[in-house]
Design goal:
Blueprint lengths: L2 H19 L5 E3 L2 E3 L2 E4 L2 E13 L2 E10 L6 H6 L4 E7 L3 E2 H14 L3 H6 L1 H14 L1 E2 L4 E7 L3 E6 L2 E7 L2 H12 L6 H7 L3
Antiparallel strand pairs: 1-2, 3-4, 4-5, 5-6, 6-9, 7-8, 9-10, 10-11
Helix pairs in contact: 3-5, 3-6
Length: 195
Amino acid sequence: MTVGSRRNLFLSIGALAVALAFPVQAMTVGSIKVEDTATVGGKTLVLNGAAQRQILIIKVYAIGIYGEKKTTNAAEFMDSSGPKRIALHIQRTIDSDEFGQLFITSMSKNSTKEQKAKVVNQTSKFGEIFADLGEVKKGDVIWLDWIPGKGTVNHLNGKATGEPMAGYEFYQAIMRIWLGENPPQPNMKSALLGG
């Protein structure tokens, strides 16, 4: 090996070492930083993907979804019953009743009659949790966590809201809002699946 090729090899190894020493930080979606990991139920989850919800030019929220491992397959992500997080970074103030109704309408659009029937009680409680918030403000962060053995746990700015809701079918209904056949925007599903 020549001196020049040895030097290039050492430079390449050095560049790789520097790159590995500084892990990739948060992904930026619009102006929002979405963290690469989240801790749910004592487990560290990885960011599967992130997207921006926008109506015309109005940014509504940035979303990141987290699971135990990355996948580009919606069914695989939703069928895996390990811990998960949906993180919503609110970008405009919205009445919580209206926000809750948007969730429930989107859940309904992406669920069959049988799927809706299985989660009717949790859906009603979910609407009540949002109604109790009063207003969701620009800058707020909502976490919708699935914790095995506990259920769906909602957080506003890191503080739990309402009681955990049992039944993985309900969390799947929430995930279908973005990973189902009728996401709020056509590009959101592919972005959340790493596209």
